[in-house]
Amino acid sequence: MKMLRYILFPIVPVYYLVTWLRNKLYDLGIKKSKSYNFPVICVGNLSVGGTGKTPMIEYLISLLKNDHKLATLSRGYKRKTKGFQLANQTSSVETVGDEPFQFYNKFGKDILVAVDSDRQNGIKNLEKENSDVVLLDDAYQHRKVKAGLNILLTTYANPFYRDFVLPTGNLREPKKGVNRANIIVVTKCPENLLDDDKIQIVKRINPNEKQHVFFSSIKYSEEVISINKTVKLKELSSFTLVTGIANSKPLVDFLNEKNLKYQHLNFKDHHEFSKQEIESLKSKELIITTEKDFMRLKQYESLKEKLFYLPIEVVIDNHQKFDNIIKEFVSN
Protein backbone atom coordinates (compact mmCIF):
# COMPACT_ATOMS: atom_id res chain seq x y z
CA MET A 1 0.00 0.00 0.00
CA LYS A 2 2.85 2.41 0.86
CA MET A 3 4.57 1.63 -2.44
CA LEU A 4 1.36 2.41 -4.34
CA ARG A 5 1.12 5.76 -2.58
CA TYR A 6 4.67 6.63 -3.64
CA ILE A 7 3.89 5.61 -7.20
CA LEU A 8 0.86 7.93 -7.16
CA PHE A 9 2.93 10.90 -5.98
CA PRO A 10 2.68 12.66 -9.40
CA ILE A 11 -1.10 12.94 -8.82
CA VAL A 12 -0.59 14.94 -5.60
CA PRO A 13 -0.29 18.36 -7.34
CA VAL A 14 -3.53 17.67 -9.25
CA TYR A 15 -5.44 16.74 -6.09
CA TYR A 16 -3.91 19.71 -4.28
CA LEU A 17 -4.95 22.14 -7.01
CA VAL A 18 -8.54 20.82 -7.22
CA THR A 19 -9.14 20.97 -3.46
CA TRP A 20 -7.36 24.33 -3.13
CA LEU A 21 -9.46 25.82 -5.93
CA ARG A 22 -12.69 24.51 -4.40
CA ASN A 23 -11.85 26.11 -1.04
CA LYS A 24 -10.80 29.35 -2.72
CA LEU A 25 -14.17 29.59 -4.48
CA TYR A 26 -15.92 29.27 -1.11
CA ASP A 27 -13.54 31.76 0.52
CA LEU A 28 -14.27 34.31 -2.21
CA GLY A 29 -18.02 33.72 -1.97
CA ILE A 30 -18.29 32.44 -5.54
CA LYS A 31 -19.51 29.13 -4.16
CA LYS A 32 -22.07 29.81 -1.45
CA SER A 33 -22.08 28.64 2.16
CA LYS A 34 -25.23 28.82 4.28
CA SER A 35 -25.03 30.35 7.75
CA TYR A 36 -27.56 29.89 10.55
CA ASN A 37 -28.97 32.08 13.30
CA PHE A 38 -28.49 29.38 15.93
CA PRO A 39 -25.31 27.56 17.08
CA VAL A 40 -23.86 25.02 14.64
CA ILE A 41 -20.63 23.32 15.75
CA CYS A 42 -18.55 21.30 13.28
CA VAL A 43 -16.15 18.58 14.45
CA GLY A 44 -13.82 17.32 11.76
CA ASN A 45 -10.29 16.88 10.53
CA LEU A 46 -8.01 17.48 7.57
CA SER A 47 -7.02 13.83 7.19
CA VAL A 48 -8.69 10.54 6.49
CA GLY A 49 -8.63 7.99 9.28
CA GLY A 50 -9.43 8.13 12.96
CA THR A 51 -8.66 11.34 14.82
CA GLY A 52 -11.15 10.82 17.64
CA LYS A 53 -14.25 12.55 16.26
CA THR A 54 -16.71 10.17 17.93
CA PRO A 55 -15.46 10.61 21.52
CA MET A 56 -15.21 14.37 20.91
CA ILE A 57 -18.85 14.51 19.77
CA GLU A 58 -19.81 12.52 22.87
CA TYR A 59 -17.84 14.93 25.05
CA LEU A 60 -19.77 17.86 23.56
CA ILE A 61 -23.07 16.03 23.98
CA SER A 62 -22.37 15.48 27.67
CA LEU A 63 -21.37 19.12 28.04
CA LEU A 64 -24.46 20.61 26.37
CA LYS A 65 -27.37 18.15 26.53
CA ASN A 66 -28.81 19.32 29.84
CA ASP A 67 -29.19 22.96 28.80
CA HIS A 68 -30.15 22.73 25.11
CA LYS A 69 -32.32 20.83 22.68
CA LEU A 70 -29.25 19.30 21.13
CA ALA A 71 -28.98 17.41 17.85
CA THR A 72 -26.15 15.55 16.12
CA LEU A 73 -26.03 15.39 12.34
CA SER A 74 -23.84 12.85 10.54
CA ARG A 75 -23.61 11.56 7.01
CA GLY A 76 -24.44 8.04 8.18
CA TYR A 77 -21.53 6.29 6.51
CA LYS A 78 -22.38 2.87 4.98
CA ARG A 79 -26.04 3.01 6.00
CA LYS A 80 -28.57 1.30 3.75
CA THR A 81 -31.03 4.23 3.71
CA LYS A 82 -31.13 7.49 1.76
CA GLY A 83 -31.92 11.09 2.64
CA PHE A 84 -32.77 12.47 6.07
CA GLN A 85 -33.26 9.94 8.87
CA LEU A 86 -34.04 10.74 12.48
CA ALA A 87 -33.00 7.92 14.80
CA ASN A 88 -35.75 6.23 16.80
CA GLN A 89 -36.46 2.95 18.58
CA THR A 90 -36.59 1.04 15.29
CA SER A 91 -33.24 2.37 14.05
CA SER A 92 -30.17 0.22 13.50
CA VAL A 93 -26.66 0.43 12.09
CA GLU A 94 -28.20 -0.31 8.68
CA THR A 95 -30.58 2.66 8.84
CA VAL A 96 -28.36 5.36 10.39
CA GLY A 97 -24.76 4.05 10.44
CA ASP A 98 -22.63 2.77 13.30
CA GLU A 99 -21.49 6.01 14.95
CA PRO A 100 -24.91 7.75 14.91
CA PHE A 101 -26.44 4.52 16.23
CA GLN A 102 -23.90 4.65 19.04
CA PHE A 103 -24.91 8.26 19.82
CA TYR A 104 -28.58 7.25 19.88
CA ASN A 105 -27.98 4.24 22.15
CA LYS A 106 -26.06 6.38 24.60
CA PHE A 107 -27.96 9.67 24.52
CA GLY A 108 -31.19 9.06 22.60
CA LYS A 109 -33.40 10.10 25.52
CA ASP A 110 -31.68 13.47 25.78
CA ILE A 111 -30.85 14.51 22.21
CA LEU A 112 -31.87 14.12 18.57
CA VAL A 113 -29.65 11.98 16.35
CA ALA A 114 -29.99 12.51 12.61
CA VAL A 115 -28.21 11.54 9.40
CA ASP A 116 -28.21 13.19 6.00
CA SER A 117 -25.45 13.44 3.40
CA ASP A 118 -26.93 16.84 2.50
CA ARG A 119 -26.08 18.79 5.64
CA GLN A 120 -28.21 21.80 4.64
CA ASN A 121 -31.25 19.58 4.27
CA GLY A 122 -30.43 17.83 7.54
CA ILE A 123 -30.24 21.11 9.44
CA LYS A 124 -33.49 22.29 7.84
CA ASN A 125 -35.25 19.17 9.13
CA LEU A 126 -33.70 19.55 12.59
CA GLU A 127 -34.97 23.13 12.73
CA LYS A 128 -38.46 21.68 12.33
CA GLU A 129 -37.73 19.57 15.43
CA ASN A 130 -36.91 22.80 17.31
CA SER A 131 -33.25 21.94 17.86
CA ASP A 132 -31.35 24.95 19.18
CA VAL A 133 -27.81 23.53 18.84
CA VAL A 134 -26.54 21.22 16.08
CA LEU A 135 -23.30 19.22 16.22
CA LEU A 136 -22.00 18.36 12.75
CA ASP A 137 -20.02 15.13 12.76
CA ASP A 138 -17.16 14.93 10.23
CA ALA A 139 -18.24 17.93 8.17
CA TYR A 140 -15.09 20.07 8.01
CA GLN A 141 -14.91 19.74 4.21
CA HIS A 142 -18.69 20.14 3.78
CA ARG A 143 -18.50 23.83 3.00
CA LYS A 144 -22.08 24.28 1.83
CA VAL A 145 -22.75 24.75 5.54
CA LYS A 146 -20.88 27.49 7.38
CA ALA A 147 -20.64 26.36 10.98
CA GLY A 148 -20.39 29.05 13.63
CA LEU A 149 -17.63 27.11 15.40
CA ASN A 150 -15.16 24.71 13.77
CA ILE A 151 -13.29 22.20 15.93
CA LEU A 152 -10.41 20.59 14.03
CA LEU A 153 -8.85 17.37 15.33
CA THR A 154 -5.35 16.15 14.49
CA THR A 155 -3.56 13.24 16.15
CA TYR A 156 -0.38 13.47 18.20
CA ALA A 157 1.17 10.57 16.25
CA ASN A 158 0.27 11.90 12.79
CA PRO A 159 -0.29 15.67 12.94
CA PHE A 160 -1.51 17.40 9.79
CA TYR A 161 1.63 19.56 9.50
CA ARG A 162 3.76 16.45 8.82
CA ASP A 163 1.41 15.06 6.19
CA PHE A 164 0.71 15.36 2.45
CA VAL A 165 -2.53 15.49 0.51
CA LEU A 166 -4.01 12.36 -1.00
CA PRO A 167 -3.14 9.99 -2.57
CA THR A 168 0.44 9.94 -1.23
CA GLY A 169 -0.51 11.34 2.17
CA ASN A 170 -3.73 11.33 4.20
CA LEU A 171 -4.86 14.95 3.91
CA ARG A 172 -8.27 15.55 2.33
CA GLU A 173 -7.28 19.13 1.52
CA PRO A 174 -4.15 21.34 1.75
CA LYS A 175 -2.77 22.19 5.17
CA LYS A 176 -4.02 25.76 4.85
CA GLY A 177 -7.46 24.37 5.64
CA VAL A 178 -6.43 24.64 9.30
CA ASN A 179 -7.08 28.38 9.02
CA ARG A 180 -10.86 27.76 9.10
CA ALA A 181 -10.66 26.22 12.57
CA ASN A 182 -11.60 28.12 15.71
CA ILE A 183 -10.34 25.35 17.97
CA ILE A 184 -7.57 22.86 17.17
CA VAL A 185 -7.32 19.76 19.35
CA VAL A 186 -4.26 17.50 19.24
CA THR A 187 -5.83 14.14 20.07
CA LYS A 188 -4.65 10.78 21.37
CA CYS A 189 -1.73 12.34 23.25
CA PRO A 190 0.29 10.44 25.87
CA GLU A 191 -1.15 11.10 29.32
CA ASN A 192 2.22 12.44 30.52
CA LEU A 193 2.90 14.76 27.56
CA LEU A 194 5.41 17.37 28.71
CA ASP A 195 4.70 21.10 28.53
CA ASP A 196 7.85 21.59 26.41
CA ASP A 197 6.48 19.10 23.87
CA LYS A 198 3.17 20.95 23.78
CA ILE A 199 4.98 24.23 23.14
CA GLN A 200 6.84 22.72 20.19
CA ILE A 201 3.63 21.30 18.71
CA VAL A 202 1.87 24.66 19.03
CA LYS A 203 4.80 26.28 17.23
CA ARG A 204 4.42 23.80 14.36
CA ILE A 205 0.67 24.40 14.18
CA ASN A 206 1.32 28.15 14.20
CA PRO A 207 -2.22 29.19 15.20
CA ASN A 208 -3.44 32.69 14.52
CA GLU A 209 -4.44 35.02 17.33
CA LYS A 210 -8.08 33.91 17.19
CA GLN A 211 -7.39 30.16 17.33
CA HIS A 212 -7.18 28.04 20.46
CA VAL A 213 -5.06 24.89 20.72
CA PHE A 214 -5.85 22.09 23.19
CA PHE A 215 -4.43 18.64 23.86
CA SER A 216 -6.50 15.56 24.62
CA SER A 217 -5.90 11.93 25.50
CA ILE A 218 -8.00 8.79 25.52
CA LYS A 219 -9.03 7.30 28.84
CA TYR A 220 -9.97 3.63 28.70
CA SER A 221 -12.27 2.08 31.24
CA GLU A 222 -11.12 -0.57 33.68
CA GLU A 223 -14.29 -2.54 32.90
CA VAL A 224 -15.90 -4.08 29.84
CA ILE A 225 -19.65 -4.00 29.29
CA SER A 226 -22.11 -6.37 27.63
CA ILE A 227 -25.85 -6.04 27.09
CA ASN A 228 -26.56 -7.27 30.60
CA LYS A 229 -23.41 -7.20 32.73
CA THR A 230 -20.07 -5.56 33.52
CA VAL A 231 -16.74 -7.33 34.10
CA LYS A 232 -13.44 -5.89 35.36
CA LEU A 233 -10.55 -6.12 32.92
CA LYS A 234 -8.28 -7.64 35.55
CA GLU A 235 -10.70 -10.57 35.88
CA LEU A 236 -10.28 -11.60 32.23
CA SER A 237 -7.97 -14.57 31.68
CA SER A 238 -7.98 -14.46 27.87
CA PHE A 239 -10.19 -13.16 25.08
CA THR A 240 -10.46 -12.29 21.40
CA LEU A 241 -10.10 -8.60 20.55
CA VAL A 242 -12.14 -7.56 17.50
CA THR A 243 -11.57 -4.10 16.02
CA GLY A 244 -12.99 -2.41 12.94
CA ILE A 245 -11.64 1.11 13.49
CA ALA A 246 -9.17 3.34 11.66
CA ASN A 247 -6.38 2.95 14.21
CA SER A 248 -6.43 0.22 16.85
CA LYS A 249 -2.87 0.86 18.11
CA PRO A 250 -3.80 2.97 21.17
CA LEU A 251 -6.25 0.28 22.30
CA VAL A 252 -3.71 -2.49 21.70
CA ASP A 253 -1.05 -0.54 23.61
CA PHE A 254 -3.43 -0.08 26.55
CA LEU A 255 -4.27 -3.80 26.70
CA ASN A 256 -0.60 -4.73 26.42
CA GLU A 257 0.24 -2.43 29.33
CA LYS A 258 -2.28 -4.43 31.34
CA ASN A 259 -0.43 -7.65 30.37
CA LEU A 260 -3.68 -9.16 29.14
CA LYS A 261 -3.71 -12.30 27.04
CA TYR A 262 -5.67 -12.03 23.81
CA GLN A 263 -5.88 -12.72 20.10
CA HIS A 264 -6.43 -9.68 17.89
CA LEU A 265 -8.69 -9.78 14.83
CA ASN A 266 -8.11 -6.43 13.13
CA PHE A 267 -10.50 -5.26 10.39
CA LYS A 268 -10.73 -2.05 8.37
CA ASP A 269 -12.72 0.94 9.63
CA HIS A 270 -16.54 0.57 9.50
CA HIS A 271 -16.10 -3.12 8.60
CA GLU A 272 -19.25 -4.99 7.63
CA PHE A 273 -18.93 -8.48 9.09
CA SER A 274 -19.68 -11.33 6.71
CA LYS A 275 -21.66 -14.47 7.58
CA GLN A 276 -18.42 -16.45 7.58
CA GLU A 277 -16.79 -14.02 10.00
CA ILE A 278 -19.79 -14.16 12.34
CA GLU A 279 -19.67 -17.97 12.24
CA SER A 280 -16.00 -17.81 13.15
CA LEU A 281 -16.69 -15.44 16.04
CA LYS A 282 -19.33 -17.82 17.39
CA SER A 283 -16.54 -20.23 18.29
CA LYS A 284 -14.76 -17.68 20.46
CA GLU A 285 -15.23 -17.95 24.21
CA LEU A 286 -15.08 -14.21 24.97
CA ILE A 287 -15.01 -11.23 22.62
CA ILE A 288 -13.90 -7.72 23.53
CA THR A 289 -14.51 -4.98 20.98
CA THR A 290 -14.89 -1.24 20.60
CA GLU A 291 -18.19 0.46 21.31
CA LYS A 292 -18.64 1.24 17.61
CA ASP A 293 -18.09 -2.41 16.61
CA PHE A 294 -20.35 -3.51 19.46
CA MET A 295 -23.19 -1.62 17.72
CA ARG A 296 -22.66 -3.78 14.64
CA LEU A 297 -22.17 -7.11 16.40
CA LYS A 298 -24.78 -7.03 19.16
CA GLN A 299 -27.57 -7.83 16.69
CA TYR A 300 -26.30 -11.42 16.40
CA GLU A 301 -28.03 -13.59 18.98
CA SER A 302 -25.20 -16.13 18.99
CA LEU A 303 -22.72 -13.47 20.19
CA LYS A 304 -24.76 -11.66 22.84
CA GLU A 305 -23.58 -13.65 25.86
CA LYS A 306 -19.89 -13.42 24.95
CA LEU A 307 -19.70 -9.91 23.46
CA PHE A 308 -18.35 -6.96 25.49
CA TYR A 309 -17.05 -3.51 24.63
CA LEU A 310 -14.42 -1.35 26.32
CA PRO A 311 -15.73 2.20 26.95
CA ILE A 312 -13.50 5.19 26.27
CA GLU A 313 -13.74 8.89 26.95
CA VAL A 314 -11.74 11.91 25.89
CA VAL A 315 -9.79 13.86 28.52
CA ILE A 316 -8.96 17.44 27.54
CA ASP A 317 -6.13 19.40 29.12
CA ASN A 318 -7.35 22.72 30.45
CA HIS A 319 -10.88 21.43 29.92
CA GLN A 320 -12.44 24.31 31.85
CA LYS A 321 -11.21 26.79 29.25
CA PHE A 322 -12.36 24.49 26.46
CA ASP A 323 -15.80 24.07 28.06
CA ASN A 324 -16.16 27.81 28.59
CA ILE A 325 -15.41 28.55 24.93
CA ILE A 326 -18.08 26.07 23.84
CA LYS A 327 -20.68 27.28 26.35
CA GLU A 328 -20.01 30.93 25.52
CA PHE A 329 -20.48 30.21 21.81
CA VAL A 330 -23.82 28.44 22.22
CA SER A 331 -25.10 31.13 24.59
CA ASN A 332 -24.47 34.04 22.22
UniProtKB/TrEMBL annotation:
ATP binds at S47, V48, G49, G50, T51, G52, K53, T54. The keyword Transport does not apply. InterPro entries: LpxK, P-loop_NTPase. Pathway: Glycolipid biosynthesis; lipid IV(A) biosynthesis; lipid IV(A) from (3R)-3-hydroxytetradecanoyl-[acyl-carrier-protein] and UDP-N-acetyl-alpha-D-glucosamine: step 6/6. Transmembrane segments: none annotated. It catalyses: a lipid A disaccharide + ATP = a lipid IVA + ADP + H(+). Keywords: ATP-binding, Kinase, Lipid A biosynthesis, Lipid biosynthesis, Lipid metabolism, Nucleotide-binding, Transferase. Its EC number is 2.7.1.130. Transfers the gamma-phosphate of ATP to the 4'-position of a tetraacyldisaccharide 1-phosphate intermediate (termed DS-1-P) to form tetraacyldisaccharide 1,4'-bis-phosphate (lipid IVA). Belongs to the LpxK family. This is Tetraacyldisaccharide 4'-kinase.
